[in-house]
Specification:
mainly beta, Cathepsin B, Chain A, Jelly Rolls, seven-stranded antiparallel β-sheet, seven-stranded mixed β-sheet
Length: about 1000
């Protein structure tokens, strides 16, 4: 059994655990976005591009952006900001939920920048260690819990991302790769700050989607789970037929509202857009999940603080599961009583923060700390040492409440942490676990009672010297400066928090901040926010100048090999950029105020940033390419004498940036008189465009031969462009004459009835031996009496006609010659028997005279073709036509034919039939001839019938608008060289699904561009 097979079996059990109550999160409905709509046509697999123009361009900009604003973007990808680590492969394990939670944690740490020493290549947190501590944990370092042992195999047991916040809050994870899972405090790399649960029952799809987008923008990633059947880059599991799916946990790192619904499989989607998923299998590291898909309720986002924020963690809730008891117990106010264990004579243990887990939305949490309790069964029997009420917390989850002043704890004394949660709908509840501790709940009468479970309330402490009690001092007034070249504010203190024009910016690992466009042209107020005991600084007022306006009066001028920009200040320094993505380059104008030696194209020019000014707004300047015409003459396939050619378009292509005017079109060379030119449209060839306003046609009734000429186009004051054009005429066939008829005969001659010459001037010829030899006269003499001859007739070949087929044979016998009676020698005059020459004197066998009654050898030849054979030869060489196409018969017995071209070379749709009727008989079309449809400039689609076995060389060459090719046949054996050369760049070749692997190899490198896709 493979690793993935094991995973899928385990995930079947995970499905029962996660979806047993049918709680799913549908993300449907069309996206509503206030940001400007941005079109996109490419979703290349695995490609990480630049952020959209409307999105934050750097991680610094992202950190200083409001998540609610980022969530309005039509597209977002955390990979663009260097915060997504490489994909980890879970192999054959069942711990996808661990990979999801650990990956989301790593991305959040990079997104917030809390660890300046960590990056995506150095920070490696362990999903395996998270799975191990889920099933086997010892007592916590303070011995307030006994830990947990599930007696299950961590590698193959199913799980859920809902376990992760409970384990993170206990500091059992996240642990670096190679760490020890048995020592929580020492190996836990970071301290959980918060874990937000994004799902809520009854919310609409649009609300849930916006909530997820905000969380991704704020934390870089969220966890999720979906029902999976297959691996595909654009996936919509909602359309999967039948059963066999399994839940798979993953990390969601972005979205794209513009992905067309039809790109998703199977069966497309009901709406555009989807989530960008970071997988835990390297066979498909990233993919897009349709908004149609349902995401499970185990959707979380995490935030952290550095490890040194706290030293100790007091808690009783050792279990990772809640077992759904929180709502049933209905606890809104609860308390845990602990014994302080870490103070000493030299240092004090300080309670700095309280972590509370609760259910409900838009919740306010009120925390109290009582010290030196006189009765541990009454949490409020001591001194009220601290009290804090949070702002409204939108999502349920685990939250750390920081006390305004740390509380000193005396070693050995008892202290209580009390948490009360409330909201407008009275749905707020404390999360509980089944563990037993010194835990209490407040009754509706205001009295404390013991609790057989424990609320998930934790006390975070730190040991150290006494905290200062002096009045708080103000932070130093900032001395922020402007870097005009980098367009940043500088001289911030690393790690400081600043308020600029009322908005807060955290300088976690940086000392500079990009200048926002709205700050330019005005004054900004900068305050350093107080930290620790210090209060906010006095504000610094900084004048930020506006950006210089775009230059005016600039012109682009074209030269023979290069161009220049004029209208600049002589010897002035500027910055120039060509195209949309190229970098800015410094460039100085010459004494004439020009930039010379520039390639053709579109440029942006701006004033360079200096001491006291930013870089200016960009002015666009175009240096146009000179007009340059190329001519492509049409191809005329060989024909036979008497058939007329259809006129074809002459392709004129302007590869310059200025329009071209055609002045004259002519033909030169020996074959010039055998063509006709016509103007059917405009004489203007637009810049970077094409023109088919001229046609050419070979003259009718040209004699047999090959004719070539030079097609010359004169334009724009005498410039010339040319192309070779030609055609070939072959001799035409003739019909066979009627069989010969006897006119008269004698013992030694036969005279036939004379056949009139053919109307085309071909002479009649006659044969006495079925076509082996011919003569012009119908009179045959010197024949043998009483002998039968095979007479046939044909028309001779001429300059423009082939010899006709042979007529049917007419057999005629010469008159028999009788000897006179008296000429027989008398019986008595015969030589006696004894006078016959002896045996030895007889002539040798080979010298016997010929039998006088045997006809000459040339009269009947075994190689003489029969009438049926001659008709068959002509039938196989003839061109047959139906309403749309021309054909040749390949095999009469097997009834097979080949399509050789279209009757109308300008048809937009090429439909090669499965079979064609010729003389009332159906023939299978098994072949597409060489160059059959080449240079059809109008064709946009082509269908190859189901009987085709071969596509010839150059079959569709030059069909530059051909975008869709449907290959229906499953019998294809051979495709000729350059069969698809020159078809449209965006073309798709669709083949039968069962033949995809074979045909993809067969159709590769047949002249088409690399952008042409082969699909099924």
């Amino acid at each position: 059994m493979t690793g993935k097979q094991k995973f899928r079996m385990g995930c079947w059990f995970l499905a029962l655990w996660m979806f047993g109550s049918a709680i799913m999160l549908p993300f449907g409905m069309e996206p509503v976005c206030a940001a400007e709509e941005v079109q996109r046509t490419d979703w290349s697999e695995g490609v990480v591009g630049k952020p959209d123009a409307l999105a934050p361009q750097t991680l610094l900009e992202l950190q200083n952006s409001l998540p609610s604003e980022v969530a309005k973007l039509p597209r977002y990808d955390s990979r663009n900001y260097g915060i997504v680590p490489p994909v980890k492969d879970q192999g054959g394990s069942n711990i996808c939920w661990c990979y999801a939670g650990i990956t989301a944690s790593e991305i959040s740490i990079h997104r917030t920048g809390i660890d300046p020493n960590a990056n995506i290549n150095t920070l490696r947190l362990s999903p395996e260690l998270l799975a191990q501590v889920r099933h086997q944990r010892g007592a916590d370092p303070l011995n307030n819990t006994k830990g947990e042992n599930t007696n299950q195999d961590w590698y193959s047991s199913p799980g859920n991302t809902a376990y992760t916040p409970a384990l993170f809050a206990q500091w059992w994870a996240p642990v670096p790769v190679g760490g020890n899972a048995n020592t929580a405090y020492e190996n836990c790399a970071y301290r959980l700050e918060s874990a937000l649960h994004l799902y809520s029952s009854g919310a609409t799809a649009s609300i849930l989607r916006e909530r997820m987008k905000k969380a991704i923008a704020a934390y870089g990633a969220v966890t999720g789970s979906y029902n999976n059947v297959r691996e595909t880059y654009f996936y919509n599991p909602k359309n999967e037929p039948g059963t066999g799916s399994y839940p798979h946990a993953c990390t969601i790192i972005g979205w794209d509202d513009t992905i067309p619904a039809e790109k998703f499989s199977p069966g497309g989607a009901s709406q555009n857009g989807g989530w960008l998923v970071k997988n835990s299998y390297d066979s498909l590291p990233y993919f897009w999940l349709s908004y149609d898909c349902s995401i499970s309720n185990a959707t979380w986002a995490f935030s952290y603080l550095p490890k040194d924020a706290y030293d100790y963690n007091y808690f009783y809730d050792a279990s990772a599961e809640d077992f759904g008891m929180s709502y049933s117990m209905n606890v809104t106010s609860g308390a845990n009583v602990f014994e302080a264990k870490k103070g000493s004579e030299n240092e004090t243990e300080w309670l700095k923060a309280v972590n509370v887990a609760f259910l409900g939305e838009n919740v306010t949490c009120h925390v109290k700390v009582y010290t030196n309790l006189t009765d541990i069964s009454q949490p409020d029997s001591g001194t009220l040492s601290a009290e804090k009420t949070t702002d409204v917390l939108e999502r349920p989850g685990y939250y750390t409440v920081h006390l305004d002043q740390p509380v000193a704890l005396t070693k050995g004394s008892s202290f209580a942490v009390v948490a009360t949660v409330s909201n407008a709908g009275n749905t707020a509840r404390l999360r509980l676990s089944l563990d037993k501790g010194k835990s209490y709940k407040m009754s509706s009468y205001g009295t404390w009672g013991s609790l057989n479970q424990t609320p998930r309330i934790k006390a975070y402490t730190k040991a150290g010297s006494d905290m200062p009690v002096d009045p708080p001092a103000a932070e130093e007034t900032p001395a922020v400066a402007i870097d005009y070249a980098e367009e940043t504010l500088t001289n911030f203190i690393r790690g400081g928090v600043y308020v600029i024009n009322g908005e807060e910016y955290v300088m976690a690992d940086k000392t500079t901040l990009p200048i926002l466009p709205r700050w330019m042209g005005g004054a900004v107020s900068i305050v350093k926010k107080g930290s620790g005991a210090a209060i906010n600084s006095e504000p610094q007022t900084l004048e930020v100048p506006g950006r210089p306006k775009a230059l005016s009066g600039l012109r682009g001028e074209s030269g023979e090999d290069s161009g220049k920009i004029t209208g600049l200040t002589p010897n002035g320094t500027y910055q120039i950029s060509q195209g949309e993505t190229s970098a800015w380059t410094d460039k100085t104008a010459n004494a004439n105020g020009e930039m010379t030696g520039l390639a053709y194209g579109v440029y942006k020019v701006r004033i360079k940033a200096g001491n006291g000014n930013f870089a200016g707004e960009a002015a666009a300047v175009t240096i146009r390419r000179p007009a340059h015409l190329t001519v492509a003459a049409p191809v005329f396939h060989p024909t036979v004498y008497g058939e007329r050619y259809a006129e074809k378009a002459i392709s004129l292509s302007n590869q310059g940036d200025s329009d071209i005017t055609i002045e004259r079109m002519s033909l030169e060379g020996e074959g010039a008189d055998y063509f006709t030119l016509n103007q059917t449209g405009s004489a203007i060839v637009l810049a970077n465009g094409e023109n088919a306003g001229y046609t050419i046609c070979p003259c009718a009734n040209a004699d047999v031969g090959t004719y070539t000429a030079e097609l010359v186009v004169t334009y724009d004051g005498g410039k010339r462009a040319s192309a070779q054009v030609g055609f070939t005429v072959s001799a035409a066939p003739q019909n066979a004459p009627m069989p010969p008829a006897e006119k008269e005969k004698t013992e030694g001659s036969i005279t036939l009835e004379r056949i009139e010459d053919n109307a085309n001037g071909a002479k009649a010829q006659y044969s006495k031996n079925g076509g082996s030899t011919w003569q012009d006269s119908p009179v045959f003499s010197g024949l043998t009496p009483n002998t039968t001859y095979a007479f046939a007739v044909r028309y001779s070949g001429t300059k423009n006609y082939m010899p006709s087929p042979i007529s049917a044979v007419t057999e005629i016998t010469t008159v028999k010659k009788d000897l006179p009676e008296g000429n027989n020698p008398p019986e008595g005059n015969r030589p006696p028997e004894g006078n016959r020459p002896p045996e030895g004197n007889r002539p040798p066998e080979g010298n016997n005279p010929p039998e006088t009654n045997n006809p000459p050898a040339d009269i009947v030849s075994p190689d003489t073709p029969t009438k049926e054979e001659l008709e068959e030869r002509f039938f196989l060489t003839a061109i047959h036509k139906d309403k749309n196409y021309c054909y040749k018969v390949l095999n009469i017995k097997r009834k097979e034919a080949e399509v050789i071209g279209a009757k109308n070379p300008k048809s937009k749709k090429i439909q090669i039939p499965d079979q064609v009727k010729i003389n009332g008989v159906s023939y299978k079309v098994i072949s597409v001839a060489k160059s059959a449809f080449s240079n059809n400039k109008k064709a946009v689609s082509a269908t190859v019938g189901k009987n085709v076995k071969k596509i010839g060389k150059d079959a569709f060459r030059g069909c530059k608008k051909l975008k869709k090719i449907f290959i229906k046949t499953k019998k294809l054996k051979r495709v000729g060289k350059n069969a698809f050369r020159g078809i449209a760049r965006s073309a798709q070749i669709k083949v039968p699904k069962k033949k995809y692997v074979v045909y993809r190899k067969m159709l590769a490198k047949k002249g088409q561009r690399s952008t042409v896709k082969i699909r099924y």
